[in-house]
Fold this sequence. Notes:
alpha+beta, seven-stranded antiparallel sheet
Amino acid sequence: MQKKLILFFVLLSGAVFAQKKPLDHSVYDSWQSVGSKQLSSNGLWANFIVNVQEGDGNLYFQETAPTNRKLKVNRGTNASFSPDSKFAALAIKPLFKDVRTAKIKKKKPDEMTKDSLAIVNLTTLSVTKIPRIKSFTFPEKGVAIIAYQFEKPLDTSKKSRPTSAMPEKNDSDFFADEPAAGSAASKEGTDLVVKNLITGVEKTYKYVTEYAFSKNGKLLAFACSGSKKDATVKPGVFLLNTEKWTLKNLVKEKGNFKSFVFDEDGDHLAFLGETDPEKKEIKDYNVYYNSLTLDTAQILVDNEIAGMPAKLVVSADGRLNFSKDGTKLFFGIAPVKLPKDTTLVDFENAKVDIWGYKDDYLQTVQLKNVEREQRRSYLTVIDIFSADPKIVPLTDVKLPDASLLNEGDAPYVLASTDFGNRIASQWTGGTKRDYYLVDVKNGSRKKIIEGLNGNVMASPSGQYILYFNRENSNWYTYQVATGKITWLNNGLSVKFADEENDVPDFAGSYGVAGWTEDDKSVLIYDRYDIWAFSPDGKSAPKNVTIGFGRSNNFTLRVERVSIGEERLLGRGGRGNGDDKYFKKNEVLLLDAFNNTTKENGFFRKAINDNKLPEQILMEKAKFSSVVKADGAEMYIYDKGSYINSPDVYLTKDFKTSTKISNTNPQQANYNWGTSELVKWTTPKGYKSEGILYKPENFDPNKKYPMIVYFYEKLSEGLYSYQAPAPTPSRLNIPYFVSNGYLVFTPDISYETGHPGKSAEEFINSGVEYLKKNAWVDGTKIGIQGQSWGGYQVAHLITATNMYAAAWAGAPVVNMTSAYGGIRWESGMNRQFQYEKTQSRIGATLWEKPELYIENSPLFNFPKVNTPVVVMANDADGAVPWYQGIEMFTGLRRLGKPVWLLNYNNEAHNLVQRQNRKDIQIREQQFFDYYLKGAKAPAWMVNGIPATEKGKTWGFELTDEKP
């Protein structure tokens, strides 16, 4: 009887597998993913988004206790809780089908369906919806008061005025547009509603262009453009008291006013503004100031103020910041902009770029950054309450970058420059920098670090400057008060730079966890553990994690918990009010990664005790970043694995958690897959590992074709969920696994000067190791890679005939020509890639020409016998697409089977979804033909003539051979 039961369950199990279908290309659009997650300040409510790849997602509210009430808002996005946790507000996107229809009809931007605002009462779960909303916001603290601005009203007249085409906004753009600096005319604003959600009191203000709450929500500043159609509405700047509902008219002139900023306590307001005639091309901006005791705003800084350098003016693009104590205001100044010379005749003047060898940057870099440079401003400060008002410029063209110390309360700012060192970035990829302390009272400068290749940060209170020198792999502090430099890791044998660095450049650091209160110590990472250093060097370094990480092959890092929209320091408990530092007795929440098993989880560790870290959980799963309630011990995160679609969880202690979502239940209907870690030894004796993905219905008695996908190191993703999706060009692993392929992703380490041979060493040996299994069909193995992976594909097919098919996305095949090419996305020359970074040659073309030839597949194309598809897109901003042309034309000249896909006006990695969908089908058809013996598609057999472009895509299968 028992044997019969066993046989029954075996047959039943087989039947279940047989009933599961393979994934097809129609599943992508509806496949779900978890979006943003939030908790109310009191921890009683959570919200999270579940998106689909194409279509309408939903936002969910979940009560954490005691009744676990729920609310679903269709198409909800960008939610935020009121500071008192009693309400929430969110945008509701238009229906996907409506937006699609509007695009098909080529409607103008103003005619497109707009977002709606939903306000949720968390006590009653009632939802109030308001259509055509442009932006909305709650104050950071205080009561439930909301401000929201309407879109421009629809023009209902039969003949609408022409509208210039504008780029569409992303779904996340829910903030009012700022008028461009120097715009010829003020944009007419729209209605702004301010409403107290507790009392129900609301006010509407017309023609508002910009607005901002004080941190405590007691004040709201806004600018009004006025309107030629409505003389009753006066233009200017207004300040609303949201408690008394009184309104001050701070500026009674028409103009452009923007960048409203309040000080910490909400007692002072500053903003930028100009009141020039609308037709004036270049506007003169001023810095305005107001305090609660003043009825109008004063011009605090104009272009004639004492201290303003010659030929510089207040910048319309500079950022305004009060010091935390409210006594100083930081702003930007910039060179005077010249109006357009209208006497020049366009067709009579040459258009030419002049490249000079003494230029700091190549013309391509300059042209790429010209808009940013035109907006560049230089940090300047004014003492608001000085009896002798003057400004103090803190940076300039030769010392352009600066950051505030102690939130602007320190007597110095930290400034830096790479002036004089920029030309070398062409071949180094970066620059050495000098660092200065600049006195905010008089602008005097003191150089404190010279020619640093490394990283710099200030301590929270501004007492120390911490820096890492990549050239000697050491950490140092500079004490601001005394000028003393302390070598922090002096005498320690442990390394604080990347121990596995395999590029021909100095290793980078493992990073900094943060500082303890009063700048008493700084927490710095090594490869595995966390160390505490006394910045003055008076106390011995302490391994906070007691060496647990290194002893157990765990990487321990402070979990950078998110609260609201801010990414803060790790918090096991609530922490301090500012979350700028750790308390001396802080219990840290640690993110843990087991380098041996690839498991992930969390530990706890008090900074000041001598106990080993306490394990909370370790799982065969991947966790998202953690979000914490600001005022309660409640956390939200999502968790998934290769097998399990990520879902959202709530927890108070990480020991027990509650699942509150259920994404992708349809996955159970498909033949999914498994992931397992594979380890082997290469021919030279290196230990390596990779991931092997198998179909869920894997049968060891069958033979399977295998695709090998690689980049550099991928094994850390053993437990990462991979949704079936049209990818930017990577292998669609779940699709191929579901359809009966094995997929292998080996890790690769590199030897400087020999990246191609390194790929052979690790990839080929891993494949040979797996071929020892009877279930691997060694005659049906394909390889696929994108970018750096595409290069390695191109190299491998010149070195071995073991692969039956190959797919190379954006490959470099000729390092001698690519060496001098341009990365058009940044404008940078490619030399640094070969001399210092990923391409790993470690020398110039003239120093080691033999290495460039050795690592250029082009010169070995006669050896190629593997059919290959190349993707090379004509708008690739990283790899010159002519590299793909060189590969295609070279192999074509040699009579090798090769195809090239050029997605028009596409990037290095495909962006447009229709192109991503297209490449999935072609990749599947290509590998199915060579690895499964399926029929060939028409595009492989006969190509697609240019005359048929856009009319036929050649997906139909034929009986002909390519």
